[in-house]
Design brief:
191 residues, alpha+beta, five-stranded mixed β-sheet, two-stranded antiparallel sheet, 7 helices, 7 strands, disordered N terminus, disordered C terminus
């Protein structure tokens, strides 16, 4: 639950390799639900390897978990590189990665979009779907630590599309260093 990023933790990494490791880690869960996970070729980006692993793992686990028991989970991961032409003269890499995790799960009413990204905010009872209620909050914090955004589109019965938008190269700023630690936030809410 701790999201701590320091300048030295960002390095060029293969998201394909990270995804492969995540799928290996989730092999038992994927096989037990007969889930299908299909992905585009994913690019290399500058990021924290451990946090990218957590991000992809949490999004895929949710895509498998929040599916009706009579439906086979199907997850599609797509990516594209976005270029902001207005920043073309900038002294930094202005390309961004748009990564979408698309599922055929139970979906939810979009009025709950903000709520699902807050720690311990569940839309379903613990008896319906196991979990701690911090997975998506952790995902949002990881993406923010990488100067990105995490959004979702969903409709009950039709699944969800989680969209991660990240810079291809990190520009370390004072703001990124001063973001509060999710672990402290969680401890305060538990107390």
């Amino acid at each position: 639950s701790r999201v701590a990023t320091v300048p030295g933790s960002f390095a060029k990494l293969s998201l394909d390799k990270v995804l492969s490791e995540v799928l290996d880690d989730l092999d038992e869960m994927i096989n037990s639900r007969n889930a299908r996970v299909i992905s585009d070729a994913l690019p290399e980006i500058e990021a924290d390897n451990t946090q990218m692993h957590q991000l992809l793992q949490n999004l895929i686990v949710n895509a498998i978990k929040f599916v009706d028991s009579d439906r086979t989970p199907a997850i599609r991961i797509v990516s594209r590189i976005l270029v902001d032409e207005s920043l073309a003269a900038a002294e930094f890499d202005h390309r961004r990665l748009e990564l979408q995790v698309i599922d055929n799960g139970i979906g939810f009413e979009e009025i709950y979009t903000e709520r699902i990204f807050k720690p311990f905010q569940r839309l379903h009872s613990q008896g319906d779907y196991a979990g701690t209620g911090i997975g998506l909050a952790l995902c949002k914090r990881i993406v923010e630590r990488h100067s990105g955004t995490l959004t979702v589109e969903s409709q009950p019965g039709y699944g969800s599309i989680f969209t991660v938008n990240l810079p291809m190269t990190q520009v370390w700023t004072e703001n990124a260093r001063s973001l509060p630690d999710l672990n402290n936030e969680v401890q305060q809410q538990v107390s």
